[in-house]
């Protein structure tokens, strides 16, 4: 249900029942708070109580490797580790500054694509070129590599899949696995496509990291000048606090896809 359709309904419900209304949307209850004082009380004063997330649905468990990413992980040591790693290692101002050369590189890519289309007398689809340029930057930050156009487009294809259309499978999964088995197959197929595209990049980065560690000090200095810390570098070193183990490749795919 779109926001434009639900807002009039919520206004009428708040007028009838008060500033806090609970509706069951699908399989989960949703709480709508129309009073800023109550919202502040819940989200600030009672933040720890309401910070957790509900257990993932059947399809969400597949997409997120059983909630092993920042946007779906339960509130606790694992979530704090994943969030801290992202904010400190990749999104920290000093780290963002270190990607200046990468942003300049991507800006040049964008400019070249605009100029090429203009010289050919073709209509310029601005959003398409911006999306491609942004993926060039994100792939470099995530995997530490400058990939060619075909590789970037493969990643764009698997990373922009709309998994929301599979939410219906969460209604009585035992039943939908029988009556909607083709849609379940499609979900597994798309997830496998993501793994086929992203896992080789993760493995390549792991191999490059091992080679970097094994280099002599003299060679390593030259290598450091071109080295770019990537998100995969940081998650390769993580150990899940509650499970006392490293992330597996499937979980790394979920982190790279969502984070």
TrEMBL record:
Q: Which domain of life is it from?
A: Eukaryota
The record's InterPro entries line, in alphabetical order, gives: Cyt_P450, Cyt_P450_E_grp-I, Cyt_P450_sf, Plant_metabolite_P450s
Q: Which UniProt keywords apply?
A: Membrane, Metal-binding, Transmembrane, Transmembrane helix
User: A Pfam family in this protein?
Assistant: p450
Q: How does it sit in the membrane?
A: Single-pass membrane protein
GO cellular component terms, alphabetically, are: membrane
Where would one find the signal peptide in this protein?
A: none
Q: List localization entries.
A: Membrane
Instruction: List the molecular function annotations (GO) for this entry.
Output: heme binding; iron ion binding; oxidoreductase activity, acting on paired donors, with incorporation or reduction of molecular oxygen, NAD(P)H as one donor, and incorporation of one atom of oxygen
The protein's name in its UniProt record: Uncharacterized protein
